[in-house]
Write a structure and sequence with these properties.
Helices cover 15% and strands 32% of the residues. By secondary structure, the chain is of the alpha+beta class. The protein starts with a helix and ends in an 18-residue tail after the last helix.
Length: 921
């Protein structure tokens, strides 16, 4: 009896606790926190990370793994730690509330609240601050910082020594570059009409001795100088041209330790260059890894604008040419890149530093110098002959050549190769994946030997579950070991070590992945700590022969996640673990690993481990306010599609649900999502899709089914998987109200939503974001963000038709899968969102679908956010959409009143004043 009373009392307490919890509302979003900007000092002692609200002031955190002590910085931005672990630099933003108030008051830029530079002694966590700082830079190895303060004529550049607090102020600075060791500062000064002593010049400042050396003066233009890795050489461009439009012809100047920079290539140089090409302001020179060569770009010299032409008498048009790959929309979308595009060239500093050797005549050919630019060769890869076909064909054809860095001569290796080779770090091999036979190949540069590396290997190195109508893609890319001796490559489950010369590979994980159903993938935990000049030269980090590497681990059956470590030698897995959690943002330095871990109920907090996850220190406890709100739970569910295919999905239920009650069910989908079982999902305003925590907290069950596709029938595939899943959930979970189910998706999910409402009447409401309503018109439509035509997407890509409009039976497939041709069957109320600046799905697709629904008097609404993208970018619009999604689905699934915007609309004359959120009478 006593035990019964205790249990009854506990039950009452639980009911009371749940009764006190509130459902999430739209006011909670701004303060919901997430982790950002994790970084470790090079020895792993200091961890820095940020806790950021969705809107408001972030907090920067520091933690000393040796002492357990920490420090927080209100409004701190991402931290930059010096390599010696002594100093941290960061910006401190102006208070969000003050900035917002100033924006409302329409303050001028120089009247806006200013940011502050903070710098911290990491031994003591003491912070010092300097106000009115717009940006800062640090070097790769040094302790000094350089920051900018002020605007316009009042802008200054300041060199800060954090140890002494000394600041050296430089005025009239146009550009500047720190050497990677932090000992030198190359400064480009710009003549200031208000300062009679100012001049156009390049000056090298020794930051240790504070001496200055004049490198060049008197030209109208200087590029930002570029140091080599050692900091004892410097290159920059100079031009006497002052033209505001067109290209500037430039000279190349080199400093190698003397008093003045030497002009090694004169302005106007064209010898040996492709016709119409020259060295212009976009040449961007850089050094090879040992500074024996300079690489730069040569580009077309664009003439100045013709000022004699009269605007209102000059025709304006775009010309589309059938045999030119770049259509006008593509040229417009890529205009910024095309304006600065150059072809690779080289200057051999030891042989003839006055000669520029072009390595390509095309700005579209990818030229990669081998071995950091120290090899005799560069790899040249181009797909130009096949570009037009690529707009409808999924081919990856390219032509491949080796180019001599001594004289530019070419050794053609392949024409129409089905794959894109990449070089090994030391330039001894090329590796590529050929999707025509799903194998990896190597090419040995010394003698031209070609080896099929994966034929006959007991492993699956391609994605055998990919269901697009195209060849199977590769699963992984090679991760090279030191000396080009071998590379690591994952198959579907395990990690292998291959010799580029062939032979049987070593299964590094000893087959544990395939045996246990765990997918292991190489995890790049250690940040690239190479000298930036070496990275620019193409130097890659490699795996040591005796190194232990880290792997992510994903258990397919349970969706659990974890990590493992394994010696690259191939002796098998050393440490491994799996948890019912998701892991993100892992970074390693020394013995420390900083990472985030969470699940649906728990925010992805920061943790630190020093013994490969055996023990971890929890560093944050974000979003304590979540305890005040109703949340929910998620479980992995299984069912068979109508055609018998076994499928997985996710089912989210309210935390206080009554198993004997009835709940409306929201169904959200895209392609496959079951692997995200343990992801944390924060309440947030919707950019396009329903926010799962919000709807679950407000009494909805949310179902997220996986979808598999059959070529030619994407719409029916969606029906096969989604509708069978909906029926299965109703059968497996009686608390789901089968009369109150809704579907919602965005983009590809929006298309599937549009198709399903023409195929079934089982849903009480539907939300379709950026849907394709008519595949026949969308086939020739433009993805305005890239300018690409959408044809390939239908023939071989996500839309999975697998045929053109003109192939036998092709038109029938396009009509079968186009919702607009079946709109007469719709009975489900539909809410569409399609924005007028959508760069992925043409906006008119949403209009076509809406107009067809209206033609048949079906209940339909179209939300068009002005100047908005495929997914909403403006936070004000995401908050608006969140309310409208909630009101729409609440009306049809929970019997809530119809809001005014659905009943009477919002007149254009009141746009921005009246929103129609109130409920209609």
């Amino acid at each position: 009896m006593k035990r019964t009373m205790i249990l009854f009392a506990l039950a009452l307490l639980c009911l009371g606790a749940n009764a006190q919890k509130k459902p999430l509302d739209h006011s909670v979003y701004d303060g919901w926190q997430s982790g950002a900007s994790p970084v470790l000092s090079e020895d792993g002692t200091i961890a820095a990370y940020r806790v950021t609200p969705q809107e408001g002031d972030a907090v920067l955190h520091f933690f000393n793994a040796a002492t357990g002590l920490g420090r927080t910085v209100e409004r701190g931005g991402p931290a930059t730690l010096t390599r010696d672990g002594r100093w941290a630099f960061f910006k401190i933003s102006a208070p969000f509330a003050e900035t917002r108030k100033a924006r409302i008051a329409k303050k001028k830029p120089d009247e806006m609240p200013k940011d502050t530079l903070g710098y911290m002694d990491l031994r003591t966590f003491e912070i010092k601050k300097i106000g009115n700082v717009s940006s800062f830079r640090t070097s790769w190895a040094g302790d000094l910082a350089v920051f900018e303060s002020g605007t316009g004529d009042k802008k200054v550049v300041v060199v800060l020594d954090p140890a002494t607090g000394r600041c050296d102020t430089l005025r009239n600075v146009d550009k500047y570059t720190l050497s990677h060791d932090g000992s030198k500062l190359a400064v480009v000064y710009k003549k200031n009409k208000k300062d009679s002593l100012s001049r156009d010049a390049v000056v090298l400042r020794n930051l240790l001795t504070r001496d200055s050396t004049l490198l060049a003066e008197g030209r109208k233009f200087y590029s930002a100088p570029k140091f080599n890795a050692a900091g004892d050489k410097l290159v920059f461009l100079a031009s006497a041209d002052s033209n505001a439009t067109g290209s500037k012809s430039c000279a190349v100047l080199l400093w190698e330790g003397g008093r003045r920079a030497e002009e090694i290539v004169s302005q106007g140089y064209t010898t040996g260059l492709p016709k119409g090409f020259g060295i212009n302001e976009n040449a961007a020179p850089y050094f090879s890894k040992n500074s024996t060569r300079l690489f730069l770009g040569v580009g077309q010299m664009i003439p100045e604008n013709d000022t004699t032409l009269v605007d209102f008498e000059t025709a304006r048009l775009d010309i589309w040419n059938y045999d030119i790959y770049l259509t006008p929309p593509m040229q417009k979308a890529q205009s910024a890149r095309l304006k600065v595009a150059t072809a690779k060239a080289v200057i051999n500093l030891a042989a003839d530093k006055g000669r520029v050797i072009p390595l390509s005549s095309s700005v579209f050919e990818r030229v990669t110098p081998l071995d950091g630019g120290e090899s005799p060769w560069a790899l040249a890869v181009t797909n130009e002959p096949y570009q037009i076909n690529s707009t409808w064909d999924s081919n990856s054809y390219c032509d491949v050549a080796l180019v001599s860095l001594a004289d530019g001569r070419r050794r053609q290796l392949y024409t129409r190769l089905n794959g894109s080779p990449s070089p090994s770090p030391e330039g001894k091999y090329l590796i590529w994946y050929d999707d025509s036979d799903s194998n990896f190949y190597s090419y040995r540069i010394s003698d031209g030997k070609v080896t099929n590396l994966t034929a006959g290997v007991d492993g699956t190195f391609f994605d055998d579950e990919d269901d697009h109508p195209m060849p199977k893609p590769q699963l992984d890319r090679p991760h090279w070991m030191e000396g080009d001796s071998a590379f690591l490559l994952a198959d579907k489950f395990d990690l292998f070590r291959f010799s580029p010369d062939g032979g049987k590979p070593v299964n590094v994980t000893k087959g544990a992945g395939r045996k246990e159903g765990i997918q292991y993938r190489l995890a790049t935990l250690e940040a690239n700590r190479l000298n930036p000049a070496l990275v620019e030269a193409g130097v890659q980090r490699t795996v040591g022969a005796k190194e232990t590497v880290y792997l992510t681990a994903f258990e397919r059956a349970t969706k659990r996640n974890g990590y493992a470590s394994v010696p690259a030698s191939g002796s098998g897995i050393k440490n491994s673990f799996l948890e019912e959690k998701s892991f993100t943002s892992a970074t390693k330095a020394g013995k420390s690993i900083l990472y985030q871990k969470g699940d649906f109920r728990n925010t992805a907090d920061f943790y630190l481990t020093k013994n490969e996850w055996k023990n971890s220190v929890r560093l944050t406890q974000m979003n304590p306010q979540q305890a005040d709100y109703r949340w929910g739970d998620v479980q992995l569910v299984h069912w068979n599609a109508y055609d018998g295919t076994p499928l997985d999905g996710l089912l989210f239920v309210p935390e206080d649900y009554d198993p004997n009650g009835k709940y409306p069910m929201m169904i959200y989908f895209y392609e496959k999502n079951a692997e995200t079982l343990y992801n944390y999902r924060a309440p947030a305003p919707s950019r396009s899709t329903v926010n799962i925590p919000y709807f679950v907290s407000n009494g909805y069950v949310v179902f997220v089914p996986d979808i598999v596709y059959k070529d030619g029938h994407p719409g029916e595939s969606a029906y096969n998987c989604i509708c069978s899943g909906a029926e299965a959930m109703c059968a497996q979970f009686p608390f789901v109200d089968r009369t109150k189910m809704a579907i919602q998706g965005q983009s590809w999910g929006g298309y599937q939503t549009a198709y399903l409402v023409t195929r079934t009447n089982m849903f009480a409401a539907a939300g379709a974001g950026a849907p394709v309503g008519n595949m026949t018109s969308a086939y020739g439509g433009i993805r305005w963000e890239s300018g690409m035509v959408r044809a390939m997407q239908y023939e071989h890509g996500q839309s999975r038709i697998g045929a053109s409009l003109w192939d036998e039976g092709g038109l029938d497939l396009y009509i079968e899968n186009s919702p607009i041709f079946h709109t007469q069957n719709v009975t489900t109320p539909v809410l569409i969102m399609h924005n007028d600046a959508d760069g992925a799905v043409p906006w008119y697709q949403g209009i076509e679908f809406f107009m067809a629904l209206r033609r048949f008097h079906h209940p339909a609404w179209l939300l068009e956010y002005n100047d908005e993208a495929h997914n909403l970018l403006e936070r004000r619009n995401t908050k608006d959409l969140s309310v409208r999604l909630q009101q729409f689905f609440d009306h049809y699934l929970k019997g809530a009143p119809m809001p005014a915007w659905m009943k009477t609309g919002v007149p254009n004359t009141r746009k921005g004043q009246y929103f129609g959120f109130e409920y209609a009478e």
